[in-house]
Amino acid sequence: MISFGFTIYKFFEYLRDKGELRAQRRFGPREFAMALIGTGLVCLLLAAIHNRLEMKRLRKHYPYVPYSLATLLAGLMGIIGIVAFVAVLFGL
Fold it and tell me: What is the pLDDT along the chain (92 residues), one digit of tens a residue?
C-alpha cells in the first residue's frame, strides 16, 4: 500500500506537469496517496506489534525459538513509508 500510494502520487504529478490533469478536486491524488500510505503504515505497525506479542508467547512454551527478522524489516519498511508520506505531504 505504501509503494502503491507513492506511485499514484508520482503518476498524477507527472500528468499535472504535462498539463493533462483536470482541475483539483476536494479529494485528489495527493490525498488518496496519503490515505494509502497512512493505511499501509498503520497496518505495518499493527502487524509488527502482533508479531512481537506472538513471538513472546511462543518463547514461553519453546524457549529456543529462533529470533525473527520480521520486526526489523517492519521497522525498515516503516522508515521508508514515513519518508514517502513526508514526500507526498510536502510535495517533494
Answer: 887 888 888 887 787 777 766 666 677 777 888 888 899 999 999 999 998 899 889 989 988 888 888 888 888 989 988 998 898 888 77
Q: What DSSP state is assigned to residue 27?
A: S
Per-residue exposure over 36-54, b if at least 16 CB sit within 10 Å of its own CB, e if not? bbbebbeebeeebeeeeee
Residue 9 identity: Y
CB count, 10 Å around CB of 59? 12
Q: Is the pTM of this model over 0.90?
A: no
